[in-house]
Please model this.
Amino acid sequence: MPQTYRPKGAGRSHDPHDGLVFIRGCGDTLWDGKGKAYLDFICGYSALNLGHAHPRLLAVAQTQLSQLAFCTGATHPWRSELEKKLAQLVDGPSLESSESNSKVWLSSTGARAVEIAWKIAFANRPGKIMRFHLSYHGRSLATAHISDTGNSDALRHSFGVHPSVEGPEHSCVIPFPMCGSQCDGKCEECDASMDVARHWLEGHSEETSAMILEPAIGARGYYFACGAYFRRLVKLLRSYGVQVISDEIQMGLGRLGTMIASIDDGWKPDFVVLGKSLGGGITPISAVIGDRDRMDKLPQGIESETFAANPLACRVALEAISVLNDECGTASISRRGNLFRERLRDSISANCSVDGRGFATVIDVSGLSNQGARSDDSSRVAWDWVCHAQGRGLLVHLTGVERNRIAIIPPLNVGDVALQQAIEILSSFWKVR
Ligand SMILES: Cc1ncc(COP(=O)(O)O)c(C=O)c1O
Model:
């Protein structure tokens, strides 16, 4: 289909699936216009954690569409119910609303919710924002400022938004330790990352508002660090009074085998940001959940959005959380994800490493460049591998700084047969090479 009307910048030519045209989706499967089926193990980068067209989500969406999709102002029962449910995810279900520690700000996209958390953090303690190297928090003008995609550098410069303070001496951009999910938080990489954070805080804590963290690096490469590292970092930030924002837009709500990764890993942030799969892959909706006193500090009139907290989105989000609890179960996601990675490791080349948590899995092909090949060779292998899988009906995501990592992001309610099929397709690449 010729893209006559679409600007070049709106394409994603770095993704092998960019040229595919899909016309139908159901569960874990997408179909193109010629009837070819694909297992969708990209899942809208976690927006489709319950797969396509989940019958329970369709049913509530249809009911709500015919009852009340949108209303002037935004007070309606489904909003209040959703706010309560989200606060309980952070506070624990047993608390009554009179005792709740949290308040909830609803928004429509991930980037907007990050901006809202940022504004609230600023209202509590004005100052700069610390972030991870390789973080991704969106592509709005503000979030591009704290995101680290190759092209957002161009965006920042061309629109005059200045990058966060960088440089080896004084940096509020903290290296993300790439030691993987199995580390104990005390390795050299973790220590080096902590040193940069400490160095910044020793000289600049007074002028620092918050640090925004992803519990695992999502968009920029699927890199994992352990809970022990995060607990060390958050303890350090707290000792300087710096607030903590956990951006769980991609990795929250089950993806890592935890509902709220930061809390389940024992480092409670001041603000949790959710998005993507909160809308069940049907309606855009996002949320900031934060400490009630801090949330109240943002004055009225600083923030609003036409479509935020609309009845349709709230109703679908409520059902999406229920389906997630009923069908997936965090313990089961962790167990099945570990089993999937074990089997995958056994069936692909020994030169590739496999890491992950829950149903967030990555294959790293860079081992090939350690074997005497150049890093662009490993990028070529990763590209070919993703294309090979696509040709055999499996969509996986090419990622990483060098584009030599492959993220595997199935729906959280995926069946064992589909998981086995994915392993067979991925391992067949090494048989034909
Ligand atoms: C961690 C994280 N934060 C923020 C965003 C931005 O979300 P949106 O594209 O809905 O603005 C994304 C999107 O991939 C993300 O992964």
Notes: Residues 45, 109-111, 114, 136-138, 214, 218-219, 247, 249-250, 275 surround pyridoxal-5'-phosphate (CB under 6 Å). The two ends are 32 Å apart (CA to CA). The chain has two domains: 8-54+329-432, 60-327.
